[in-house]
Amino acid sequence: MPSISGREVYLALKRRLVMSVPRGEAIDVQMLQAELRSSQVPIRESLIALSAEGLVEHIPGRGFFTRPYSIAEVATCFQVAELILTAGISTPDAAGMSRRKFVRDLRKDQDIFEMISVFCTSIARIHGTSRAFFLSLILFRCGGILIRDAKRHGECLRTAARAYLLSSTDDRTTKRNLSKFWQSRIERLPSLLSYPGSDSPEFASIRRV
């Protein structure tokens, strides 16, 4: 079988990290080489890039580790996401675009990785790359928690994304609902992070055994 490109390695690893709830496990680079049919160089380069994004922890002399969550960190991420989105409602579209045209891109068959990518691409087109960049870092970092919360409580990030894209520049109801969306998840963080059982199977194969 042909090997995959460095970009494909990066995206494959990022998807697994985003869709899991990591707890600080060592990442086995050799196992990844076999699984992804790639050499060590693109895998290490991808892990270094993911480390810069806050998804992986690199400890010199010890290797790469999945970066565990903390309640304080995730709560801060959710608060910043709320600020970015609620402030964005009041900001006119930089390119004069209608946000509604992007709602159709948020499909039910998308996993959390695809949904975040599509949503942040929409925000980049509407408001420019800076806001989208910071929001994507936050949402990708907390993807596993958002998945876990949706499974237990039913409401998913797509709901908040659609509300944002369908809002007007003076939509006070949507602002209140977005605030409630993020604050309720902050209140549930202790139970979400202590949820018993194994983490996402998508990431299990790259843990050191």
Percentage of residues in strands: under 5%
Given the structure, what is the number of helices? 10
Which structural class matches the secondary elements? mainly alpha
Number of strands: 2
Overall pLDDT confidence: 87
Q: Spell out the helices and strands N to C.
A: HHHEEHHHHHHH
Overall geometry comes to globular
| Largest sheet, spatial ordering of strands | 1-2
Helix content: 55-70%
Low-confidence segments: 196-209
Main sheet specs = 2 strands, antiparallel
Radius of gyration: 18 Å
Question: Your description of this structure?
Answer:
It is a single chain. This protein has helices spanning 6-18, 29-36, 40-52, 71-89, 112-127, 129-141, 143-153, 157-165, 172-193, 201-204, and strands spanning 56-59, 63-66. With 209 residues, it is mainly alpha-helical. Helix 4 (71-89) runs antiparallel to helix 9 (172-193) and helix 5 (112-127) packs antiparallel against helix 6 (129-141). The longest helix is centred in the C-terminal third of the chain and has 22 residues, at 172-193.
